[in-house]
Design brief:
The complex is a heterotrimer of chains A (283), B (332) and C (252). Chain A is mostly helical. Helix content of chain A is 75%, strand content 3%. Chain A has helices at 2-29, 36-54, 58-79, 89-111, 136-158, 160-170, 172-177, 182-203, 214-229, 234-254, 257-274, 276-279, and strands at residues 126-129, 132-135. The longest helix of chain A has 28 residues, at 2-29. Chain B is built from 16 helices and 2 strands. Chain C is α/β, with parallel strands linked by helices. Chain C is 38% helix and 25% strand. Chain C has helices at residues 47-55, 77-82, 100-108, 114-127, 143-155, 173-188, 200-206, 224-229, 231-239, 246-251; strands at 7-18, 21-32, 36-40, 62-67, 70-71, 85-87, 161-165, 192-196, 209-214, 217-222. The longest helix of chain C is centred in the C-terminal third of the chain and has 16 residues, at 173-188. Classes of the chains: A mainly alpha (283), B mainly alpha (332), C alpha/beta (252). Chains in contact: A-B, B-C. Chains A and B meet through helix 4, helix 9 and helix 11 of A and helix 4, helix 5, helix 12 and helix 14 of B.
Chain lengths: 283, 332, 252
């Protein structure tokens, strides 16, 4: 039971950084990015190729993922999403859904449908502390995730862009009046958001195999973490991510996998229904 | 008093008559008829989605969930218990209706993105459950319906044209249901909820109940289409029947392209998109897996970027079937 | 009259709090059947919030609302409408893509089937001389017309108590007189009104009684002339810089 708890926490840290990305996009740009899972997948592929062709450990490769996906995300926001910010919700929904389908099939075209995994020296290793086994891949991923989360928190608090992002998240009007370039900030926030999630994908490569549709499996997880922890805050994402990790781990212990997913879904939809105000962006 | 004969109605009747004559002109085992049948089936499904997405304007990305419930219900009852798929169709519809009612509770206050998200999660969870329960659902391998020759009571036919006519009947039913909802008292209430929910409440509309009814009817109809789909295609698996792009988005796109909230929209949209998709599949899929879907997704995004207000902005109001035409004729 | 008519509507110490802000602070009042009561006060005094809490669009933080002896606080707006109380919206919140008659028909569906509802809607439009506009899209109407449609829509729900939120804001003087005439006729037919207005002329002429609120509290009540002479009321208006000096007019 405690083992499951620990595992849940380790997983949860990673979910936190993934959720943070989503939370950032939603909290700042104000749209639900249905394609977010696809960016996770992309991050995994970048890391994988870095491992395969450059010999980089996925943890280092994730940094590459971060960078590459940031650039892509920035472009996507500027070229696509910025254009529909004032359009009806249906347009926004189908744009990101279209992006999702395009990205998944694009990956299918480029990489094929085979499952790919990495093999790293520490893959099956771990640390035994008391009666608990801390799996090495889980642990290193967790540490990386927390580290990045910490860096991001500092960035949002100290840097000019970070503050601009927070300002826009709170009150776009006021931010504009204060001289913030909204469109550029949206692009940065989106880029940052998907980059964070991509990083999250890269670091879990040691224990998850990647395929073009892997993102879909994390959709409910990501969104549950975000609605649990509330929007836009690093701490919220951490809480949400950890909660989801623990819930998943514990329910795997108690239920079959089918019920585990149902359990997660029920939690997701309950939280969603109880906090509609927390999710509707006051524009 | 609801007038029965409007221009739209006449057009519809003509269409049905013309459509029912199609199989007589083509080789009943041919490809064209098959595509036409598929198009009409998706038109019926889209019409069901239209009730929630068009009349109530709540974009659901999870209707594949109901579609799959229909398919699995009838097929499992048939394969495991020998129950006729006709009964299975009713069972699936009932099950879907219950699911929709349950889903209504937490989603009643959700709008726009959040509603879409909740429905998406619904279909995804069903997909995962179906994939991970081989004992019940056959798991990722899916379910196959054995070919049984001509056994009408078991929903099994020898020729494509038989399925075609059943599908056409399904489309007529789907359209009739839509029409009844759109032009009845509930049509007014749904539109009111769509346009200004607060004012609707103040005007005495039980907004939660109205959304529930739309949801339940739509789900039952969608499930029925799922059953027919399973019988027609003889095979399905979790990833295809609960598919976001393949089912949920497809039915939504058909309605949006054809005209959201209109009676003819799903028909026009399906007759346009499905053959187009078949053609592009034929050309592109042979080149690479995923190319066809990629192309479609790109076209979808381009269409939205070119006209963010959507095809709806291009669709003349005059064509809106429903209360408007009827009112013009019966005021006083 | 020796024994008073039964109270139709009662507000018992109703309160609405938004976080730390007391938008409505322990307000109590009662309406008798057939009264036209005015609810006045400077901008931001909490009048619309009071209305919203009466019809169920705003949750109460305290107190309760009783309609015909039944506690209705906490009910959803459509159930309160079914029990006979509804309000008009300040910005005529109608259904923009529907026609005028469709708007009114929707409201009439509360108590009638579709065929009846359509007839009732047509009759309602006649009452407000809106028949020429029956097929017009609401979005295309001018503000004064929207206000009239809004009233017609509210009336179509068959209320016993009607809350009017600044219906006369966009009307000309003669239009105002017409609407006041309609209100009086409806009152004679048995309707009870609670009216928010800034036009002092209308308030003074129309209302049997006034309730004065400021900063969410009920600061005075009485007949129009009583209230006009109340120094507390004058202070509230002049002190907050309100534009309408109808109070001083009524005094002289």
């Amino acid at each position: 039971m405690t083992q499951a708890l620990i595992d849940g926490i380790l997983l949860g840290g990673v979910y936190a950084v993934i959720a943070l990305g989503l939370s950032l996009v939603y909290g700042v740009v104000g749209i639900v990015n249905f394609a977010h899972g696809a960016f996770l997948m992309l991050g995994m592929y970048v890391s994988w190729f870095a491992w395969r062709h450059l010999g980089l450990d996925p943890l280092a490769g994730s940094v590459l993922s971060f960078g590459a996906v940031f650039v892509l995300g920035y472009l996507v926001q500027r070229a696509l999403i910025n254009r529909v910010l004032a359009a009806p919700p249906a347009a926004q929904i189908f744009l990101t859904v279209g992006l999702l389908i395009a990205m998944e099939n694009g990956a299918l075209l480029l990489f094929g449908s085979d499952f790919r995994s990495v093999s790293v020296p520490y893959q099956l290793q771990g640390y035994q502390i008391g009666g608990i086994f801390l799996s090495a891949p889980y642990l290193y991923a967790f540490i990386s995730a927390i580290a990045l989360g910490g860096v991001l928190e500092l960035y949002l608090a100290r840097s000019w862009t970070g503050r601009a992002i927070r300002a826009v998240a709170q009150d776009p009007m006021a931010a504009t009046l204060a001289g913030v370039d909204i469109r550029r900030t949206y692009a940065r926030a989106f880029g940052l958001g998907v980059a964070l999630t991509a990083f999250g994908g890269g670091i879990i490569l040691p224990y998850i195999t990647v395929s073009p549709t892997i993102g879909g499996q994390y959709v409910v997880l990501m969104f549950t973490a975000v609605v649990l922890g509330g929007l836009g805050s690093v701490r919220g994402a951490l809480v949400g991510g950890l909660a989801v990790g623990i819930i998943q781990s514990l329910s795997a212990l108690l239920f079959s996998i089918q019920l585990e997913n149902l359990c997660l879904f029920v939690i997701f939809i309950t939280v969603l229904s109880l906090r509609p105000q927390g999710i509707v962006k006051g524009m | 008093m609801r007038p029965a004969i409007t221009p739209a109605f006449v057009l519809f009747v003509l269409f049905v008559v013309a459509a029912s004559l199609l199989p007589l002109g083509f080789d009943p085992r041919g490809h064209v008829l098959r595509v036409a049948a598929m198009a009409l089936l998706f038109a019926a499904t889209a019409q069901a989605w239209n009730i929630v997405g068009g009349l109530a304007n709540r974009i659901s990305l999870g209707h594949a969930g109901f579609f799959g419930i229909g398919a699995y219900s009838s097929t499992l009852l048939y394969l495991r218990l020998g129950v006729s798929p006709w009964i299975g169709l009713l069972a699936g519809a009932a099950l879907a209706a219950i699911a929709a009612a349950l889903l209504s509770l937490p989603t009643v206050r959700l709008q726009g993105h959040y509603f879409a998200l909740a429905t998406l999660a619904f279909a995804q969870v069903l997909q995962v459950i179906a994939n991970s329960w081989p004992g019940l659902t056959g798991g990722p391998l899916g379910l196959s319906i054995p070919f049984a020759g001509s056994q009408p009571l078991k929903f099994s036919f020898r020729t494509v044209s038989s399925y075609y006519w059943i599908i056409l009947a399904l489309l007529v039913v789907s359209c009739a249901v839509f029409h009844l909802l759109a032009t009845g008292a509930i049509g007014y209430r749904l539109r009111a909820v769509r346009e200004n929910e607060q004012a609707a409440e103040a005007a005495g509309v039980d907004t939660a109940r109205v959304k529930l009814i739309a949801s339940v009817v739509s789900a039952a109809l969608t499930a029925a289409c799922g059953t027919v789909f399973a019988q027609f295609t003889y095979y399905f698996d979790p990833d295809s029947i609960f598919s976001l792009p393949g089912i949920s988005v497809r039915m939504a796109m058909i309605v949006i392209v054809g005209g959201l909230g209109t009676l003819g929209g799903p028909i026009v949209g399906a007759l346009f998109l499905i053959p187009l998709e078949e053609a592009s599949n034929a050309v592109l899929s042979s080149k690479a897996a995923g190319l066809s879907q990629f192309a479609f997704a790109t076209i979808l995004m381009a269409a939205i970027l070119i006209q963010p207000r959507g095809m709806m902005a291009l669709w003349p109001k005059r064509w809106s079937a429903g209360a408007k035409l009827t009112v013009e004729r019966t005021s006083r | 009259m020796i024994a008073p008519s039964p109270m139709l509507l009662q507000a018992d110490s109703i309160a609405v709090r938004f976080g730390g802000l007391k938008a409505v602070d322990s307000v109590s009042f009662a309406l008798r059947r057939g009264e036209i009561v005015g609810l006045i006060g400077p901008n931001g005094a909490g009048k619309t919030t009071i209305f919203n809490s009466l019809v169920g669009l705003q949750r109460l933080s305290g107190g309760r609302v009783v309609l015909e002896g039944e506690t209705i606080s906490g009910m959803k707006p459509h159930r309160i409408a079914a029990r006979g109380m509804t309000k008009t919206f300040q910005n005529a919140a109608l259904f923009p893509e529907m026609t005028v008659i469709e708007n009114v028909t929707t409201a009439a569906l509360l108590r009638h089937d579709l065929a009846h509802a359509r007839r009732l809607a047509a009759a309602m439009l006649e009452k407000f001389e809106l028949t020429p506009f029956a097929q017009a899209d609401v979005a295309d109407l001018t503000l004064p017309l929207k206000a009239l449609v809004e009233m017609a829509r509210a009336l179509a729900t068959g209320p016993k108590v009607l809350l009017l939120d600044e219906v006369m804001a966009a009307l000309t003087h003669s239009e105002m007189d017409e609407v006041m005439g309609v209100i009086r006729t409806l009152r004679d037919e048995g309707l009870t009104f609670l009216v928010v207005e800034h036009h002092m002329r209308a308030i003074m002429a129309l209302c049997d009684r006034l309730l004065v609120v400021n900063f969410g509290r009920l600061i005075a009540q009485g007949t129009p002339s009583e209230v006009a002479n109340d120094p507390v009321v004058v202070e509230a208006y002049l002190g907050s810089g309100a534009v309408h000096a109808g109070a001083s007019h009524a005094r002289s």
